[in-house]
Write a structure and sequence with these properties.
Blueprint: H1 6-9, E1 16-18, E2 32-34, H2 38-51
Parallel strand pairs: 1-2
Protein name: LacI family transcriptional regulator
InterPro entries: Peripla_BP_I (IPR028082)
Amino acid sequence: EPGEGLWAVEQEVPVVLVERSAPLGHPAAGLDRVRSDHAHGAAEAVAHLAGLGHRAIALAVQDSPTAPR
């Protein structure tokens, strides 16, 4: 929605978007943001498990609001 997230830019304290981003041109687009690197995290987890000797590694997932689309 057009007005969604405007409260964030009106704060008198620093604001950081976590696992979110604002579209280009939106007032919140200039806010700092942090996002997870899911692919890197998965690769690190598999490497760790493989390093421990595990060979049968599976991933069970469901839709996540923080996963990239």
